[in-house]
Amino acid sequence: MTLKEFFSEQQRLVDAALDRFTPNESEHPATIHRAMRHSLFAGGKRIRPILCIAAAAAVSDDAPAAIHAACSLEMIHTYSLIHDDLPALDNDDFRRGKPTCHKVFGEAMAILAGDALFTLAIQTLARIENADPARVVALICELSFASGTVDGMIGGQVTDIEGERQPPTPELLDSIHRAKTGALLRASVRMGGIAAGGDAAQIDALSRYGEHVGLAFQIVDDILDVEESSEALGKTAGKDAAQGKITFPAVYGLEKSREMALEQCRLSHEALSPFGERARRLHEIADLIVERKS
Fold first, then answer.
1. CA 127 → CA 96, 98, 175, 197, distances in Å?
2. With contact defined as beta carbons under 8 Å apart, do 88 and 100 qualify?
3. Sequence-ordered list of residues with C-beta below 8 angstroms from that of 182, at least 6 positions apart, any chain
4. Domains of the chain, start order
5. If we measure between CA atoms, which residue out of 96, 116, 153 comes closest to residue 22?
6. pLDDT of 47-100, one tens digit each?
């Protein structure tokens, strides 16, 4: 199976599971469920869930909890996008090529839709059947810390906001992106390993892979914001520069940023050496992240 076929298959599995775990749009109160589903099923690439599933497969052939972990990650990621797009933050009209949640349902409902996806993510993990309770607790801890304020996604968003119009320094850039984007990508592979019952050495190797691939992802994201069109990205291009955000091209320039992305990709491959052939998909995903155009 090619990587493209693997992605298509995993996207279908994740979407089917998300559909099961998310209240139907006709269920009362219907408006909030329509708003949640509008953003959740807007056509995302499902990178985080697929990283989670691929990490679980690198550890074990039997990891039924991985699909719950994968879906919880996509719920958190989508909630963060809904809130990022609000006028008080990035003020974006389009996401994944479609009108943003607040443009369709209004700001109040968009805020609540993001809140609801966060709580649904925790519920999804808490409802894993026939699982070791300690493993469920570990998954919930991993997701909540990666989403939080101390070295987590929200903390990175705060630093990003406060860093606007400040001089772009490597130190500030690193503190923003290791938390804002990197924390959840790192959690994706760690949660896959935890769901599959990985030992400490395996989780450590996955963590190092996640750190490197997460940094590569953000570097490429920053490059694409400069080089690609809004149509190609599915969101407004050039927003980072317009808002004075601290990005890799702003600090290092485009050519150096490309070199850095390739180096992070190389390091991510190195981190997977303990898994051998079982990590083939994780290797392929690392290359895809660096080579992508959207």
1. 29, 31, 34, 18
2. no
3. 156, 210, 211, 214, 215, 217, 218
4. 3-291 (1.10.600.10)
5. 116
6. 999 999 999 999 999 999 999 999 999 999 999 999 999 999 989 999 988 999
